[in-house]
Write a structure and sequence with these properties.
CATH class of the largest domain: Mainly Alpha
Pfam families: PTR2 (PF00854)
Order of helices and strands: EEHHHHHHHHHHHHEEHHHHHH
Largest sheet: 2 strands, antiparallel
Oligomer: single chain
Keywords: Membrane, Transmembrane, Transmembrane helix
Protein name: Protein NRT1/ PTR FAMILY 6.3
InterPro entries: MFS_trans_sf, POT_fam, PTR2_symporter_CS
Number of strands: 4
Strand content: under 5%
Main location: membrane
Length: about 600
């Protein structure tokens, strides 16, 4: 039932009207168009993604309160535990994508890693339910001697907790790497009707992500805080297993695609071959380099790749396309680790060109990480009552303003920003991908400025004996949410547009790795700030009792880092030329209105 590598390449004579030539059923037979794929298959896949978002965000946004209040970890350690968990979840998408593309196929990858996620949540449920896996309650939970009255968790207690967290992260990364791709596999791009349905599928994919996020920060957080985490996590286990059962029941209707190998293997092969041949001179004629037409003439499988024109940058990588005499004069005697095609090299070059943009988008997600860590700690210390006080808003549920602002921004952008932007730019989409990212980065700076001002006002009021309303935090959640709507869509559009055709499966991994590294960067900054501010007997910025610390200074630091990153991004974006225009220029195609469009 995996996307096997030896599936038939053609469709039998007389069956072209009913079967497909690039998709197969679970038995390896050509898929019948009328009885496979389509919305009935895609809907079962969407449920898996909804449960993934419900679980990951439901654990992440409310975990810091559990680590501080129940496990008795410090504020900085708790924040780092949350960002490490979320960072691992996204970074493991690269592993999941490699496994899916090279060995298991998307179907088996989703099924296996969904089961791993369920196992992780089972461990988390046991960890929060069993009294022996939690330290005893503090003797003075709210007084000045709280830290000294609390028993630290044992190695076993922390080990079980982290086992559950990272099993969940492994499952999340594995299934998330393949869900959108397997969903799009259920539609045939060569058919006009199914191609339109595929575009609608991605809209519904984002919708299900948003629904899962809303359920996580409202219903699930409320259950965790009022009924107990074991019930909230147990509900996640039930939802994951129900979704997995639904997913498996659709096996006979799914369309499977041939394994194409991982782009990471291609990058490694080009780099290794170029390094091994670094002493060889490049031939004066580029036609002497090994390329797609040579591979086709030798009967090699080039996996539908189209020849790309040679570009001027990173010429040292072209040595990977030199065929040495020792490798055999016949192209058929080469292998990808000895001599890569020039098209393979050009695809790797394109990834290298994208790296500066990739790197300068990472700090946005460091700012985003604060919405699930210190902003939740702020909410915990503020007045969260609604109306007469009969209902108290869970601290983790403040994230609903972040999710809500994302859902609000998308239609506002389409209806207001795009028509307005068209008046000033030649882009029919309003803003280019890089312009959208720059807006998101600017909003992240403003969000940290708002967070710093709010925290300073909260701390001053608290020291004076007052308890400010938690809704003072709404601006920072709102700004980060709107920024995410711009940055997320801009990044996804950029990586999908600019990634080479032969490396499309890598585009999602590149995008998600910026999220992962942003969370890990948050961990590094928190650790560094905590170490520096506690040295010499000074009062640390990041403390369990926010009134005794200086969290606002930490926010000012992030605002400064984000501002510097914004300037770096603008510099990088101004020098970036989109792939379509660059390839046209390399081919000598010039139009009267062909102006290189930059991001700013």
């Amino acid at each position: 039932m995996s996307d096997v590598a030896a599936l038939p390449e053609t469709v039998a004579e007389g069956k072209m009207t009913t079967t497909m030539n690039d998709a197969w059923d679970y038995k390896g037979r050509p898929a019948v168009r009328a009885s496979s794929g389509g919305w009935s298959s895609a809907a079962m896949i969407l449920v898996v993604e909804l449960n993934e978002r419900l679980t990951t965000l439901g654990v992440g946004v409310n975990l810091v309160t559990y680590l501080i209040g129940t496990m008795h970890l410090g504020g900085a350690a708790s924040a780092n535990a949350v960002t490490n968990f979320l960072g691992a979840s996204f970074m493991l998408c690269l592993l999941g994508g490699f496994v899916a593309d090279t060995y298991l196929g998307r179907y088996l990858t989703i099924a296996i890693f969904t089961a791993v996620q369920a196992a992780g949540m089972c461990v988390l449920t046991v960890s929060t339910a069993a009294p022996g896996l939690r330290p005893p309650a503090c003797a003075d939970p709210t007084g000045p001697s709280r830290r000294s009255s609390c028993v630290e968790p044992s190695g076993t207690q922390l080990g079980v907790l982290y086992l559950g967290l990272y099993l969940t992260a492994l499952g999340t990364g594995g299934l998330k790497s393949s869900v959108s791709g397997f969903g799009s596999d259920q539609f045939d791009e060569s058919d006009d009707g199914e191609r339109r349905s595929m575009a609608r599928f991605f809209g519904w994919f984002f919708f299900f992500i948003s629904i899962g996020s809303l359920l996580a920060v409202t219903v699930l957080v409320y259950v965790q805080d009022h009924l107990g985490r074991r019930w909230g996590y147990g509900a996640c286990v039930a939802a994951i297993l129900a979704g997995l059962l639904l997913f498996v029941t659709g096996t006979s209707r799914y369309r499977f695609k041939k394994l194409v190998g991982s782009p990471l293997t291609q990058i490694a092969a080009v780099t290794a071959a170029a390094w091994r041949k670094r002493a060889l001179p490049l031939p004066p004629d580029p036609d002497m380099l090994y390329d797609v037409q040579d591979a086709v003439a030798a009967g090699e499988d080039v996996k539908g790749k189209q020849k790309m024109p040679r570009t001027k940058q990173c010429r040292f990588l072209e040595r990977a396309a030199i065929v040495e005499e020792a490798e055999g004069s016949a192209a058929g005697e080469t292998n990808k680790w000895a001599a890569c095609t020039l098209t393979d090299v050009e695809e790797v070059k394109q990834v290298v060109r994208m790296l500066p943009t990739w790197a300068t988008t990472i700090p946005f997600w460091t700012v985003y990480a604060q919405m699930t860590t210190f902003s939740v700690s702020q909410a915990q210390a503020m007045d969260r009552r609604l109306g007469s006080g009969a209902f108290e808003v869970p601290a983790g549920s403040l994230t609903v303003f972040l999710v809500g602002s994302i859902l609000l921004t998308v239609p506002v952008y389409d209806r207001l920003v795009v028509p307005l932007a068209r008046r000033f730019t030649a882009n029919p989409q309003g803003l280019s991908p890089l312009q959208r990212i720059s807006v998101g980065l600017l909003l992240s700076v403003l969000a940290m400025v708002a967070a710093a001002l709010t925290e300073r006002a909260r701390r001053s009021a608290s020291l004076a004996g007052a308890t400010p309303s938690v809704f003072l935090l709404v601006p920072q959640f709102f700004l980060v949410g709107v920024g995410e709507a711009f940055a997320y869509v801009g990044q996804l559009d950029f990586f999908l547009r600019e990634c080479p055709r032969g490396m499309k499966t890598m585009s999602t991994g590149l995008f998600l790795s910026t999220l992962s590294l942003g969370f890990f960067f948050s961990t590094a900054i928190v650790s560094a700030v905590h170490a520096v501010t506690t040295s010499g007997g000074r009062r640390p910025w990041l403390t369990d009792d926010l009134d005794q610390g200086s969290l606002h200074k930490f926010y000012w630091l992030l605002a400064a880092i984000s501002a510097v990153d914004l300037l770096a991004f603008v510099a990088v974006a101004r020098g970036y030329v989109y792939k379509e225009k660059r390839l046209a220029a390399e081919a000598g195609i010039v139009h009267d209105d062909d102006v290189l469009v930059h991001a700013t």
